Amino acid sequence: MELQELLLNVHSNLEPPKPDGSTYLMNGNYHYYHYGCDGFQDVGWGCGYRTLQSICSWQTLVEIKDKPERFFGSREWIGTLEAIYVVDTLFDVSCKVIHISKRDNIAKHADTLKEYFETHGGLIMMGGDMDAASKGIAGIHISADSSDIYLLVIDPHFVGKIKTKEELYTKNYVKWQKVEEFVDSSFYNLCLPIVKIKEEL
């Protein structure tokens, strides 16, 4: 599969959820990997890999002994912890983990996420238990009075050929989601790659 077949920065045309407040987004470019985007059928189990955006994670997880050899070629899920191992192993980039025990605690981490996007600007991986659907987080929006907080979700569960970014918005694969709309019975783990942003010249 050629990278030019994948859409670049799928969140870039999406307006903030509210006109007031402040929005903090990731920096840099990324390709949108989703179910079956390379012809490999991973519907129902591959969202963690697609969020990680690298099918080579399968091999890496075996090489670093996080998974037994039978894991290679299997259809076992990976989570945020495995994503951390892969990012660290492949790119020598450490990751911060935020463990959120309940949905209503997501809002308590708004300042940390805002600071992360300002300082490091990476794409965050988010996964949980009751909400086991892995997703990327590309930004946060905090309303002017801080009463509404949204996360910019990049959902890898799309299946098929994507024609435009707007198609992803219409079908809610790329969307602003209020923190109250996350599953309240689920814990969440967030993987924040600690990358250094190059300063403008």
UniProtKB/TrEMBL annotation:
The record's section on Gene3D superfamilies has:
3.90.70.130
Keyword set, alphabetical order: Hydrolase
* Domain UFSP1/2/DUB catalytic residue range list: 22-58, 59-191
One Pfam family cited in the UniProt record for this chain: Peptidase_C78
UniProt GO molecular function: deUFMylase activity
Q: Which InterPro entries match?
A: UFSP1/2_DUB_cat (IPR012462)
The question of whether Hydrolase is a record keyword is answered with: yes
Q: Which family does it belong to?
A: Belongs to the peptidase C78 family.
Its recorded name reads UFSP1/2/DUB catalytic domain-containing protein
| Organism the protein comes from | Culex quinquefasciatus
Which gene is this protein's source? Answer: 6030907
